Amino acid sequence: MDQTYGDFRARRDATVWQRLNRVLRVLLFVAGWLVIVSLFVPPYKRMSQGRAEIDNLQAQVNEQKTLLSHQTREVNLLKTDATYLETIARDRLDLMKEGETIFRLEPTRTAKPKTSGSTRR
After folding, report:
1. How far is residue 6's CA from residue 96's CA, in Å, rounded to a whole number?
2. Which residues contact 102 (CB under 8 A, 6 or more apart)?
3. Total structural domains in the chain?
4. pTM reported for the whole predicted model
């Protein structure tokens, strides 16, 4: 009878150690996974920031290309088109031909509501 009780106790101790062994393996696996993730997260963040910066710079390049094309077109028109040159010169110098009436339309400005800084009662 002592042998069966000892055998049962040995089994119970073995299962406790087996469970602790499993827990230890799981914890080691999780720790290894966390180490691997921590090695890849900072470069991934830098890569994402780099991509955002590249997109920002590309937008600036596109904006500058658009501006360049508009200004190149205007220079080309000023060099080659006498009518365009005359229109721009008259507009900037506020000149008009005889018998010509010029109407200038300016965009309406929205009136800001007046707010008093201090209200006394």
Report:
1. 117
2. 96
3. 1
4. 0.50
